Amino acid sequence: MYQFTVTSWNVRGIRSQAKKIKIFDYVSRLNADIVFFQETHLLKSEEKSLTDSNFNKIYNSCFNSRQRGVSVLLNKRLPVNIINSVIDPEGRYIIIKVVIYNKCFTILNLYAPNNDDPDFFHRIFSELSDLSADSSLIIGGDFNLALNTSLDRSSKCSNTKPSRSAKVLMDYMEDLGIGDVWRLNNPTKKEYTFFSPVHKSFSRIDFFLSNNSIVHKMSSKIHPIIISDHAPISLTLQCDSNQKVFSLWRFNTSLLNDSKFEKIIRKEWEDFLLTNDSPEISPSLLWETGKAVIRGKIISYSSFKKKQEQMAEKTLEEKIKKLTEEYAANPSELLWEKLQNTKLNLNIILSKKTDFILQQLRYKNFDYNNKSGKYLANQLKHSKENSFIAAISDNAGQTLNLPQDINNIFHDYYQNLYSSNLNPDPEDIKTFLNKLNLPQLTIDQKTTLDSPLTLQELQNALDSMSTGKAPGPDGFPAEFLKHFWSMLAPLFFRVVTEIKNKGHVGGHMNTANIKLLLKPDKNPILPSSYRPISLINTDLKIISKALTSRLEKVVQSIIHQDQTGFIKNRHSTDNVRRLFNVINMAQNSKKKTIILSLDAEKAFDRVNWSFLLTVLGKFGFGESFIQWISTLYNKPKASVTTNKITSQSFTLQRGTRQGCPLSPLLFAIFVEPLAAAVRQNSVIKGIHSSISEHKINLYADDILLYLEEPQSSLEEVFNLINSFSKLSDYSINWTKSSILPLTKNSWNPAHQNPQHPSTTNTIKYLGLNISPNLNELIKLNHDPMLDKVTEDLRRWNNLPISLLGRIASVKMKILPKINYLFSMIPLKPPKQWFQRLDSTTTKFYTRNKKPKISLSTLQKNKDEGGLEAPNFMHYYLANQILYLTEWLNPKKYYNTWQEIEQLDCKHIKLSDLPFITATLKHHNCFKNPLIASTLTAWWKALDITNGQLKTSILSPIWHNPDFKNKKTPLYLKTWEESGITHLQDLFENDKIRSYNNLTQAFDINKSNFLQYLQVTETIKKTTPLDLTTLQPPELAIYMKKISTKSKKLSKIYRALSNTNCNYLPIAKWEAELSITPSTDFWAEICCNTFKMTKNTNLQLIQYKVLHRSHITQQKMHKMGFSATDICSQCTQNTADSYLHALWLCSPVQHFWILITEKLSSILDYRIPLSPNLCLIGDLTMLQPPANQSQSILAALAIAKKTILLNWKDKKSLNINQW
To answer: Which of 162, 178, 649, 916 fits as disulfide partner to 639, beta carbons 3.0 to 4.6 Å?
Structure first.
């Protein structure tokens, strides 16, 4: 039976955080699916404060002052479709038309005027008439009237006649066939929703109205009057269905902090093993039974704990309700006193709970506010993710809305998807594979993979798992197993050994629960639009993870470098750089060439296991490792969960589960024979360089084919894929695949087969829009991204985030997207693009106000007076220099982007390009736009870091356009073969080598003195052979040093950002405070700002003080906003300079005296009254104990915060405010 509950409550203001917590906690206990709030008293700008993790759709109607205000909140667990909505601009009502469980409802939340205003109800029902056709009505809220004055009011002397508004409302109720739900279920009962403290009388003015035809399916309840002076009321509607909706159990990880719980679980496990562990019981059965026992104990403990926590509240609530009824029937001072005391006791309990929650929020806010992480990310979310699926279409195209129907459709869809009708002949698979030349594992690799899993490997696998992830069907997340690993490990290791020996995973360990995520920009009505994520039990995932750790160490040796997806030390950037080089090469060749982009249909879900196991054998995997894979894929089961309904399980017959650690690598192995067949097929013509042929690019299941002679090559590709599909279940969706012609007349769509892929001007690859015209890449990718960034920043602009939080937001949410484009597309966006991006981020940082600290300063390092806001130009340069480090550290060039770029450089080595001057602009290599972009970025980086693009000892001697003899670059093959390649080879001990020294050092023929003269004299024409002048730029030395390191991007960016200058207004501080100038001193001052506390608000206060960014009377006068610059808050008749405002002003000076005295008393350590210490944080005169220095600075920052809070009224400064 489906049901949903609507709760309505006049909350009399919900601005207070403490009150909001109490209200939402109580609403949660009432199990509300839809919530109506009245009198929220929120302004439009405060709407976002009314958020809760359980409600993903919130509608607010606010008034222009702190009056009225209504809200409708829809629980994220409710499958609801919004059809239409009407929001009253005066904060009186909200009307929403919705579809819930395939039924259409018009819901209305209202807050009626407290005066007799019939026109209000005329207006309400006029609005309703336009929306409520073909739907059931649910109207609730504070009507501010009693329908039955004798039953709905406690006062015996009240007017028995209904008000004019009540008469109008009852007329509409009769006309529309709607009734008072609570009264229809309680015809003679007296119960009230509102207490008037002035008249000490009760009334029932909050109620629900609904259609008489469905009232029999409804129940309504009035809850105690607590927190507000109105009682919350609830309506529950039962919908026809026999389906029981339930959630899978999931362990509450907060219990791991409960020491009592831990003792109980350890004792329970010990007793369980003592009773049940025997040779007759298999370890697998013992493990599964043990998990069930522990699960039962956890549920029992949690339930008992929750009941204990809520028992006192429920008892008091029932007592309040009983006393309220007694007092309403027979008022007396004694009953009134009892009622008030009971409410007071309940409020004490609620306040204690609220105080604890608020304290936790304060801790979280203190630690995480305005910092990169989940806390900030949740603030930036556009809307809460809703995992509920409102409707889905079946095979016949009919759209179904009932949750059970939706679940049935997905069950059938995935059962069919994971069922295999293909049963290929093993001999046919072997025949296909035997035609291919596939690499083999070495004996050592095979032996390592086949050795038994160790307990340490299993522990390492568990330790590597992330926390906070959804568990599998058994409900135990990684946190539980990590916490109790020492207790669980011995039995689990026996289980793993038994699984290996028997070749079967017992019990429910090999079951998974499929959760669905809607793919971006996909139609939510289609089952195929959802990505299935298999939630696998943690114990099974430990085994898979341990095997993955072994497999990833050898997979690079058997998977061709064309495949970069999910393989260590391979990157998607290599795919894209190669793609652009191939496009450039193809257009220069003028041959008929195309790119075929393949769309694999549910690639991971269609892996045929027989084929996969045979492929493993072909690559030389041993029997033991193959048995492990076979065991893990031996009749695994899965169920599908949608809208809190979990389907019956079904057996999987194919596919690698998305969620299993092994899946990406197994898929790479599975698809590699297809890639090898393409490479080794002579009929399929790739795009040729002078030394190799480029045919295929793979990133997991994203495949591009580079083809010459398109007609014949395509036909062979179709035939090959068809043959592969018949053996492997792999399938290409040809209608979604596409052909991108690279040159004119390379492909005529008129001649193509209707079943062939369509021809297009652009393709989508790894999230990029690709055009055969590389000059269009910026327009196709960077411009749309900039529009999206602008929209995101506009949407976030009104969020209550500080400057530090805004910078963190850009670094966390914007920078990764921009960096992705910079890393993939080497072409430089135009200057205007960077200017617009900088302007947009600056407006976001300053909330559209004039910046007090320039963007260039904010972008500096923290020790230089900045906040490390991202410098997008520097990030672009750093991403391009990443490719330069690949030049410096060449790998195997064959069939890679480096090979193509090396060919364009002719005789000059890629690794030498950074050390040749701008004469390269006239070299053939500069015609390659990718090389040109990288070199241009490198030259710009040298300029930024004050490096000089010049000949250095790292420059090559041979083929260098700077060293020409009769217009021909120098080249002596015998010298090169002897190891003389760069200018540094001509030097020893800081001096140029003599001819004899050179011949001895490099074993060259002594009869080549003329060649020696030729080389040295040619070089001297452009460059003095003096080691001092030939020193390379520091950036060049650094690039060579880090070329083989990890995390190169951040290192390069840091190198570009370091200026060794300070951007504080240090001249003013030094003049006012008599400080001796020192770069190290100011760097330490800046660093202390961020070391003193984790709280970003205090950090920002100190940062702004150092930058003197607060407006003083003197500054106001200079700006023309004040007639005088004299301080108006003291009697010194002195200009209100920054030092005066923050230190010398009389009330401020007195405040600082009190602060330093108080700190000295607390720390038992004299804190001097010094502006150097108190204002800028100079600890040199203090030399406190190491454990006190940061605390002192934090305390002084709080003092400065107190001054700033009283900036316009410093006379009210008080030590108690600190």
So the answer is: 649
Backbone angles phi, psi at 1198, to 5 degrees: -65, -35
Helix (H, G, I), strand (E, B) or coil at 518: strand
Question: What angle separates helix 455-463 from helix 538-551, to the nearest 10 degrees?
Answer: 100
List the structure tokens of 880: 């391009």
User: Up-side HSE of residue 338: CA atoms within 13 Å toward CB?
Assistant: 15
The residues facing 180 across adjacent strands are: 209
**The pLDDT of residue 862 is above 80:** yes
User: Rounded to whole angstroms, how far apart are CA atoms 243 and 842?
Assistant: 54
Distance CA 1087, CA 15 (A): 38
Specify which residues 210 forms β-bridges with: 138, 179
Q: How far apart are CA 866 and CA 1103, in angstroms?
A: 9
Predicted confidence (pLDDT) per residue in 338-356, tens digit: 888 888 888 888 877 777 7
Q: Which residues pair with 87 in a beta bridge?
A: 94
Give the torsion sign (CA, 385, 389, 395, 400): negative
Asked if pLDDT for residue 734 goes beyond 60, the answer is yes
Q: What is the pLDDT of residues 14-43, one digit of tens each?
A: 988 889 989 999 999 999 999 999 999 998
Name the residue among 667, 688, 478 with its Cα closest to residue 581: 688
CA neighbor of 202 nearest in space, from 63, 330, 309, 333: 330
Tokens of 986: 């001509």
Mean of the per-residue pLDDT values for the chain? 90
Cα separation, 147 vs 207, in Å, equals 10
Residue indicated by tokens 């080249």 = 971
Calculate the alpha carbon distances from 419 to 426, 473, 579, 1090 in Å. Answer: 19, 21, 36, 58
Q: Treating both helix axes as pointing N-terminal to C-terminal, what angle do 710-728 and 663-680 enclose, rounded to 10 degrees?
A: 140
**CB contact set of 203 (below 8 Å; sequence gap of 6+):** 146, 152, 153, 154, 155, 192, 193, 194, 196
CA angle at 771 for the pair 770 and 772, rounded to the nearest 5°: 130
Distance CA 463, CA 471 (A): 15
Q: By C-alpha distance, which of 576, 591, 563 is closest to 685? A: 591
Coil/strand/helix, residue 1098: helix
How do residues 53-94 score in pLDDT, each as one tens digit? Answer: 788 889 999 988 788 999 999 998 888 888 889 999 999 999
Which stretches does DSSP call E strand in 511-631? 511-518, 530-536, 593-599
Half-sphere exposure of 401 (CA within 13 A, CB side): 12
| Residue 734 neighbours by CB under 8 Å, 6+ apart | 755, 756, 757
The two beta strands, 763-765 and 758-759, are unpaired
Separation between Cα atoms, residue 951 and residue 912, nearest integer Å? 11
Q: Report helix, strand and coil shares of the chain as percent, to nearest 5.
A: 50, 15, 35
* Contacts of 1058 by beta carbon, 8 Å cutoff, 6+ apart: 861, 945
**Tokens 């590597």 sit on residue:** 464
**Cβ-Cβ contacts under 8 Å for 1208 (sequence gap 6 or more):** none
Give the mean pLDDT of 433-448: 96
Ramachandran bin of 61, using left for φ above 0, alpha for ψ from -120 to 50, beta for the remaining angles:
beta
Judge whether residue 374 has pLDDT over 80.
no
**For the chain, counts of helices (H) and of strands (E):** 43, 34
Q: What does the alpha-carbon distance between residue 1142 and residue 869 come to, in Å, rounded to a whole number? A: 27
- Integer Cα distance of 503 and 977 in angstroms: 58
Under 8 Å CB-to-CB from 657, ≥6 apart: which residues?
512, 534, 536, 636, 638, 663
Helix (H) or strand (E) holding 504: none
Report all structural domains of the chain as residue ranges with CATH numbers, in order of start: 2-239 (3.60.10.10), 405-738 (no CATH), 1066-1217 (no CATH)
Distance, C-alpha 264 to centroid of its chain: 37
Residue 243 pLDDT > 60 = no
DSSP, collapsed to helix, strand or coil, labels residue 58 as strand
pLDDT in tens, 1028-1079: 889 999 999 999 888 888 889 999 999 999 888 889 999 999 999 988 878 8
